[in-house]
Amino acid sequence: MRRVGIHGTEPLYGLEATRSIERTASSALPPHTLMARAGLRVAELTRALAPHARCIWIACGPGNNGGDGLVAATHLQHFGRSTGGLPDIVVTLCGDPARLPPDAAHALQQALATGLQIQDAPPSSFDFAVDALLGIGCRRPPEGLLADHLRILRSSGAPVLSVDLPSGLDINTGVLMRAPGENPQASQERHTLSLLTLKPGLFTANGRDEAGQVWFDDLGVPPCDGVLAQAQLICEAPHSTAPRRRAHATHKGSYGEVVILGGQDIAQAGAGMTGAAVLAARAALHGGAGRVYVALLGETPGEPAVRWDPECPELMFRSVAALMSSALMQTAVIVCGCGGGDVVAELLPAVLAQAPALVLDADALNAIVKDSHLQARLQERSASGWITVLTPHPLEAARLLGSDTATVMSDRLAAAQHLSDRFAAICVLKGSGSVISAPGRMPMINASGNAALATAGTGDVLAGMIGSALALPPGSFEQTVQRVAGAVHQHGRLADRWIQTAHAGHLTASMLAEQAL
């Protein structure tokens, strides 16, 4: 058993793959072995998480998830007897005992034989709870007694350990099917012990909030040949994208150039977005790019309205006309759209036709939605071997797909992959558990980041960080995807470090950009 989210990458298996692994393992082992192992691991983790609990509630459901809970309760009762009778183990069972599946029925029989009593109602108070109500087969919101027990679990404030998945969480998508009347903002310590496989739903959409700290035990079952993972979890930046030790005999040209096109001037429609471009540029510079240029959109023709950034004087400001006619359009990484407003649409035909490496963010994505010719040019770029990275948030993704935000959020992995396949581009679908996808490749879910990033400008910082990652000497397409994933992970790690060091006040995008390396 181990904690998840610390090192390396992890394969994530959806419902069908997990079922296949489970069937293969069950056929090779004596009856009830997997449940016996699962219940023991739940009991061991419960003891480790709640060593001083006086009352532990084990809430069991009508399926095999409930069977795992019954086995755990049997072990916890035995542990308590051997150590002086603590804690008090209260077990409830939702469902008809006569209709339990075979493994769960066996677990109930064994539990009753040891003297374990099944209570009619949850305890009036408890120090720790085990959620063994619903598992990977849940397909609709909990109802009746199940819903009642879930509301009590999640509103109690007591720490909760979920068995395999938090009840009601979709294994593939991370969408939570809430019980009627359930408080979505209930705050409590949460843990999840994922058994046999790690599931993608634990790490994106509602999954991260509901699962809390994820633990994993493979129950002694080795990976199965021929069973494909649905996604990959990124727990640390890929080795090739880690902070690099620079050779002495290098110069600024060795680390590439990034051009930021964005930052609509306030003269355009009375809405200034200069800061967005500056944030992206600062992030690209702090991220390691050798040179960073900025062209602000909507300024007076022939000269830049902003001539320098006093907090980051290394940035080189150029007029849009000068940059668009320079060789940089064919040699630098272009980051386009950060606060670009409507003006960015005028530049996109030339940008799409010239830039071998391109990051499209925010207003650039919105402009592409409105123009089928731009969409066609975007799709054609891959035929030249050019790199395009799209960085939409869910609403922008929905617009690109001709859908709505709810549909995107109902299956973030599928939405990101659809965008990659449709536009022949790498896609970073932002949000809790950002998804990185590419044509013909397994999508990745980023494990870093937190709600400190929920503030204006952090997306611009991410675009700049991706730009600096792409500015390195080109490698294979797979290396490029890994660089993008590394930038996304590093972006989240900066926010994680902010929280861990207990800074006063809120994280701002400018603070984030300064730490981008």
UniProtKB/TrEMBL annotation:
Gene3D superfamilies: 3.40.1190.20, YjeF N-terminal domain
Homology family: Belongs to the NnrD/CARKD family. Belongs to the NnrE/AIBP family.
Function: Catalyzes the dehydration of the S-form of NAD(P)HX at the expense of ADP, which is converted to AMP. Together with NAD(P)HX epimerase, which catalyzes the epimerization of the S- and R-forms, the enzyme allows the repair of both epimers of NAD(P)HX, a damaged form of NAD(P)H that is a result of enzymatic or heat-dependent hydration.
Requisite cofactors: Mg(2+); K(+)
Cofactor binding comment, as recorded: Binds 1 potassium ion per subunit.
Catalytic activity, EC: 4.2.1.136, 5.1.99.6
Pfam families the UniProt entry points to: Carb_kinase, YjeF_N
Record's protein name: Bifunctional NAD(P)H-hydrate repair enzyme
Molecular function terms from GO: ADP-dependent NAD(P)H-hydrate dehydratase activity; ATP binding; metal ion binding; NAD(P)HX epimerase activity
Taxonomic lineage of the native organism: Bacteria, Pseudomonadati, Pseudomonadota, Betaproteobacteria, Burkholderiales
UniProt keywords, alphabetically: ATP-binding, Isomerase, Lyase, Metal-binding, Multifunctional enzyme, NAD, NADP, Nucleotide-binding, Potassium
Superkingdom of the organism of origin: Bacteria
PROSITE patterns referenced in this protein's UniProt entry, alphabetically: YJEF_C_2, YJEF_C_3, YJEF_N
Reactions the enzyme catalyzes: (6R)-NADHX = (6S)-NADHX; (6S)-NADPHX + ADP = AMP + phosphate + NADPH + H(+); (6S)-NADHX + ADP = AMP + phosphate + NADH + H(+); (6R)-NADPHX = (6S)-NADPHX
UniProt xrefs under SUPFAM superfamilies: Ribokinase-like (SSF53613), YjeF N-terminal domain-like (SSF64153)
Start and end residues of each YjeF N-terminal domain: 18-227
Known partners and oligomeric status: Homotetramer.
Residues that hold (6S)-NADPHX according to the record: 64-68, 135-141, 164, 276, 339, 393, 460
Example of a GO biological process term: nicotinamide nucleotide metabolic process
